[in-house]
Each structure stands twice: as C-alpha cells, then as structure tokens.
Amino acid sequence: MQGDLADYHNGLELSRSYFIKARDFTNAGIASIQIKGFLKELGYGSHLVRKVSICAYEGEMNVVMYGSDGQVKMDLYPHLLCLRVEDHGPGIEDIELAMQEGYSTAPPEYREMGFGAGMGLPNMKKNSDFMEIISSPGKGTLVHMDFFYRHKMKLGSHSQHFVEIDHVKCNGCVLCLKTCPMKAIRVLKDGKAHILGTCIDCGSCISVCPRGAISPKTSASLDEIQREYTIVTVSPVLYTQFGEETMPNEVLIALKTIFDQVYDQAYIQELFSLATEFYLQDKRNDPSQRWPIISPICPVVNRLIYYRFPALLPQLLPFLAPREISARELRKKLLERSSLRPEEIGVYHITPCSAKMLSTKSPLFLNKSHLDGVIGINEIFTKTRSSLGHIS
C-alpha cells in the first residue's frame, strides 16, 4: 500500500466479511447486494454506495468465475472505506494485460450467460479512488480498493431505523443485545446499548427491556402533516381498538372529520389475497419454482430476508404490499378528477406497526414509496374517539 495512504487506515470502526463460493452462479451477486444495503442503512451517500457496489459486484463475479472460493472484506474508517476481494484461484499471469478494457479469459459458456466482457477490473479501477492488485500464477489474487469521503461517519447515528434507546434509563443489561436477530446492538464503554448495525425494526428489543428504555418512533405527528388535501388508508386493526359496539363505518366517518378522504384498506386486502391465490395456482405447475412463496406484506420479514437470508429473495411474492397499491391508486385517481398538483396531495397510512414507517421512508423494492408517511394508531386514537362521541 502506498505510504501516503497509510494515515487513512487508522481508527477502524467496523469490519464485515462476505464469503464467495466459486462457480455458484445461483447466489452470485448476493454479497454486493448485502454490502449495498448495509451501507444505505448506515446512511452513506448514494454516490459512494453506488461506486462501492459496482466494485464489490465486479470483484465477486471474478471470484465466482475464475477463483477457488474467496471473500469480500469491507473495513470502515473515519474517512475511508476499504474493500478487499481475495480468492485462492490460479492467479493473474499478466496484470497489465488484464487491466485492458475488453480483455477476457472467460470460456464460451460464461459469455453465453452474459459474463466475461473484460470490463471487470477496469470498472473497479474507474470507480475506486485507489486500487492495487497483488497476484501471481498459482497463488491467488487480492484486489485492494479504497474509497474516500469527506465527512466522518459516526456509526449508528445515521442508521435508518425507528427504534430509540433512552440512555438515561438503559443500564446495559444486554438483554436487547441477546434477542436482536440482526446482532445490531452493542453495549459500549459508556455501559449503554447502542444500535450500530442494521436494525429491521422487529421490536424484539422493546419487548425484553425491563426498564422501558427502548421505544418505537411509531409515527409522524399530525401537526407535521401540511398538505392541501390529505388521504388516509386505514388498517383494519384500527377498528378493533374501539370495542365491539363501534362499527368500522363509524370509525371511518370519525376519521373523515380529520382528513379529506378516508379509504378502508380491507377491500384492497381481499383483492391482494385473490391475486395471490391465482399466482400460487399458476406456479404450482412450474417445476423451476422454489417453495415456499413468501408474502411481502410484513416489512420486518422483508428486511430480515434481504439482510440475513438473501437466497430467499426470489421466493418473495412479486406484488406491492396492499398499503402501497392503495396509495398509488388513490393518488392517481385524485389527480385525474381534480386540479390539485402532486405536491398538494398527502397520502398516509394508519397502522400500529412502527416498521412500516421505515418501509415508507426507505423502501427496499421501490425507489420511492407511494405513501408520504405513516400515522401510528396511538397518534390518532384519542382524536378519533373524540370524533366518535359526536356521531349521532
């Protein structure tokens, strides 16, 4: 490594390693997907995430095609991200030649699959700030890449999650650490729990905390909703909060005193179930279909699969969640029949689930959610109950 870069490799904050299986084209690319998702969760800028993802993918594919198993290792420093792709394959005989665009030793079968265009190493060079290749015939290959960024990342402070830890109440008992399925929580030198890794907002830590130090940020405040026209889609769970004597229609009428338009999501839920049934019937005759097929409705399950079990991603039902379908169609219809501009319309979802706020702010499978926000039942309950009292 060049001497003038040595100072940047001080103060290691976090390190992650990802195993790569040679010739495993089924799972090829999963490591780079996990790296991309992890960096997004930590709050790194999209430009940096894109460059690192490209380099990780190109390096991963080189190991899959030419190596003999290997790994991608990512180290995070205060102003530097370091990526190392290492394999134990045959090595590179002529590094200078391998760096030329279009040069490839890929066999015909790899080319037929769309790989081996000879752009892997050149793309890695183009997208990294510093790159070094250490290789010799019969001794494997190490590709070292550095990516610099100006502002120091304080791990945990920019992570996209909606769980808060009150450090005044926290006594560092580590119960939350033990129950977290993502191993995202650590007790640091201050004796307090901190979320340092990828949080999927499952709420497991909330349920086991004996001091009530962990709580969900369940909703945006109603006072923050400032749109000319507001629409809410209602989870059927809301109806159960007002007792057996209160009918769903009464709750909807009460909500109409607060919002301009109220939509009962039960109907779209039925359509979603019907579409799912048709899809399953069709796939039962497909010998290539992997089972089980998994519903995409729960954002916690989606994120758990995305970060911990990415091999299951192809088994997710390829439909938008009902709340997203409802928001998309309601907005579309309102724009067609009114003179309102898109920015004047706000579409929100009422739900008891704090994880749905994360899926709205940072959706996994959409560039941007069709919802403008999520309103927790705790935020709307008192006002709705008050309106119910005025319904004759």
Summarize the structure in words.
By secondary structure, the protein is α/β, with parallel strands linked by helices. 34% of the residues lie in helices and 18% in strands. The protein contains 13 helices and 13 strands. The chain has helices at residues 30-42, 46-66, 95-98, 108-112, 120-127, 175-179, 204-208, 248-255, 266-283, 299-308, 322-337, 355-361, 377-388; strands at 14-20, 70-76, 80-87, 130-135, 141-148, 163-165, 185-187, 193-195, 214-216, 229-234, 261-264, 345-351, 373-376. The strands form four sheets. Strands 1-2-3-5-4 form a five-stranded antiparallel β-sheet, covered by helices on one side. Helix 12 links the parallel strand 12 and strand 13. Helix 1 packs antiparallel against helix 2 (46-66). The longest helix has 21 residues, at 46-66. It is globular. The N and C termini lie far apart (78 Å). Mean pLDDT is 86; it is low at 1-8 and 151-159.
- Contiguous uncertain segments of 5+ residues: 1-8, 151-159
Report the C-alpha radius of gyration, rounded: 25 Å
Considering DSSP H and I runs of 4 or more, what fraction of the residues is helical?
Answer: 25-40%
Shape: globular
| Individual helix count | 13
Mean pLDDT: 86
> Using DSSP, what is the number of strands?
13
Distance between the termini: 78 Å
Largest sheet: 5 strands, antiparallel
Secondary-structure content class: alpha/beta
Strand order in space, largest sheet = 1-2-3-5-4
Q: What is the helix/strand order?
A: EHHEEHHHEEEHEEHEEHEHHHEHEH
Strand fraction band?
Answer: 15-25%
